[in-house]
UniProtKB/TrEMBL annotation, chain A:
<dbReference type="InterPro" id="IPR036527">
    <property type="entry name" value="SCP2_sterol-bd_dom_sf"/>
</dbReference>
<dbReference type="Pfam" id="PF02036">
    <property type="entry name" value="SCP2"/>
</dbReference>
<feature type="domain" description="SCP2">
    <location>
        <begin position="23"/>
        <end position="111"/>
    </location>
</feature>
<dbReference type="InterPro" id="IPR003033">
    <property type="entry name" value="SCP2_sterol-bd_dom"/>
</dbReference>
<protein>
    <submittedName>
        <fullName>Sterol carrier protein</fullName>
    </submittedName>
</protein>
From TrEMBL, chain B:
<keyword id="KW-0349">Heme</keyword>
<protein>
    <submittedName>
        <fullName>Cytochrome P450</fullName>
    </submittedName>
</protein>
<dbReference type="GO" id="GO:0008395">
    <property type="term" value="F:steroid hydroxylase activity"/>
</dbReference>
<dbReference type="GO" id="GO:0036199">
    <property type="term" value="F:cholest-4-en-3-one 26-monooxygenase activity"/>
</dbReference>
<dbReference type="Pfam" id="PF00067">
    <property type="entry name" value="p450"/>
</dbReference>
<dbReference type="GO" id="GO:0005506">
    <property type="term" value="F:iron ion binding"/>
</dbReference>
<keyword id="KW-0479">Metal-binding</keyword>
<keyword id="KW-0560">Oxidoreductase</keyword>
<keyword id="KW-0408">Iron</keyword>
Amino acid sequence: MSFNDAAEVRQYLGGVFEAAFADPEIAPQLQGTGIVLKTVYTDPAAVVVIDTAAGTVELGDASTPSTATMTMTADTGNAYWQGKVNLPLAMAKSRIKVEGNVASLLKLAPLGKKLYPRYIATLQADGRDDLLV
Amino acid sequence: MSILVSPPRAYDPLSVSHLDFWAATAEEREKTFRQLREQRPVSWHPPLEGALMPPENEGVWVVTSHALIGEVSKHPEIYCSGRGFQFEEVPDDFLQAAGSFLGMDAPRHPALRKLVSSAFTPKRVALIHEQIKAQAATIVDGLLAAGEGDFVEVVSKRLPMWTIYEMMGLDESRRDEAAHHADGMVSWADEDVAAGREPGEVLSDALVTLLTMGMELAEERRAHPCADLMTALVQAEVDGERLTDEEIGSFFVLLSVAGNDTTRNTISLTAKAFQDHPDQRDLLMADFDGRIATAIEEFVRYVSPVMTFRRTATRDTVLGGQEIREGEWVAMIYSSGNRDASVFTDPDRFDITRSPNPHVGFGGGGPHFCMGNFVAKMQLREIFDQLLHRAPGLRLGEPAYLTGNFVRAVKSLPFTVR
């Protein structure tokens, strides 16, 4: 199964970062990177912009400025946040396209790992077993 | 969760964690390693100063003696590779994609290694040797014709690149690009290589490009088989199992790195060692065929091209009297093990007749022992056969080294040949 609409993409894939900003351990590290990450999803289409310094997660559009942009299907995003997608292999197979400061994404990598189990727990708590990979 | 309740340990007063330490010469580093080896062969250090991402661990154990490097290497059930093999922090994704079976443990490690090994039939190995012979001769033709230049560009870099990519079946037009990215895989910390880019970008570009090349080549060979290793890999089957394109892509990256930089630097630094120790050169030339096999082991020991590999403790254990906790990093310093005076008499001496020579240049034994060591030995035999017999007037200047904690790499080495 997939996300039904942009609002769901925003709720779940954006929600990962909201959970991170609410975490006293992860939040300062995330804010310390100072990255503005634009995640461009397709099927369904949604642009979710994460401003780590400001601690905000907003719906944006193609013109929203960012430090780095990651483009992928919402399904790939869903699998990614469950720790099921290898980023370099996905980039090599063009499943994920990265533009801008790739190095900044590496700085997010250790934080991402901590967020996988929470994302899975959120899906389970909401009864969205259909989204579990 | 013993880590949370145990008090923090004191770091060793000798530092190996700063980039400055890895920017110094091997001789400088050896002064530190010698002290550690002789007094504290297992020592606790701060996380390595890395360029890619902030360290998550509190520190790293550094193992400097020959015996303890062997102990770690031969006990993969205690010191695993599946939780990373680099001395500094690198994202897990990158390690998995770049490491192939290097970053795996049993049962997947032996299964995958067996699959890859099955592609190296005796007939294929003989073909590879013939290719290397021809490559070495052509490269020394080029050296003699050039008269002067950078030995790394003209000789050391060319042979491994040519061997690996001809063996794989990569089109000639793509070999320079592949070799360039193979460099990026180990040299992101070096300012010259990065040329203003962030280290993470260098690594990411290199990795993604090599993965793409490997997967594309695998796809091509599935559709149009040729007489090369890639075709053998896509066709390889052990116990009904085949390699996926991702696994082949990842192996292509491993081969590009493991097969490129190791032999390259051994060639450069052995050539320099022969210039600095002409008696050893004369000794070898007096009976090349009789002495070269023993001499090659000394080339690898003396140069120690791969300086470090890391494991992770799978349980609480004791190593060299130190209590190691589950999850802690354990780094082996091969370049230190290869200078261990309790194993090697006069270890700083370049002695091509040294025998036995139980160096750890190809690893300290165990399941991760260098699989390509036979290719490296063929390359060293053939290139030094050519160089020593055909270019006696070769003169080398001083090598410029790369900064990094993984491979002891020579960036450039000026030469003239009369």
